[in-house]
Amino acid sequence: MFNRKLKAELSSKQEVVSNLEAVIESINESLATIEFDTQGNILTANQIFLDVTGYKHDEVIGKHH
């Protein structure tokens, strides 16, 4: 009985994670996004950001904003 409850809860949490990953993917496919670390260094930039700004991937990654 306890195992069934845990399995159901795990399944529910996995579905939530899957849905959130889909939302993040949708954002990355439709908006220019850039991610920074706590020191202001660029960690990632999606292709839309690169296209809009004209930068290349290696020109922005690791740079300070």
TrEMBL record:
The organism's place on the tree of life at top rank: Bacteria
Boundaries of every PAS domain copy: 16-65
SUPFAM superfamilies for this protein: PYP-like sensor domain (PAS domain) (SSF55785)
InterPro entries for this protein: PAS (IPR000014), PAS-like_dom_sf (IPR035965)
Entry protein name: PAS domain-containing protein
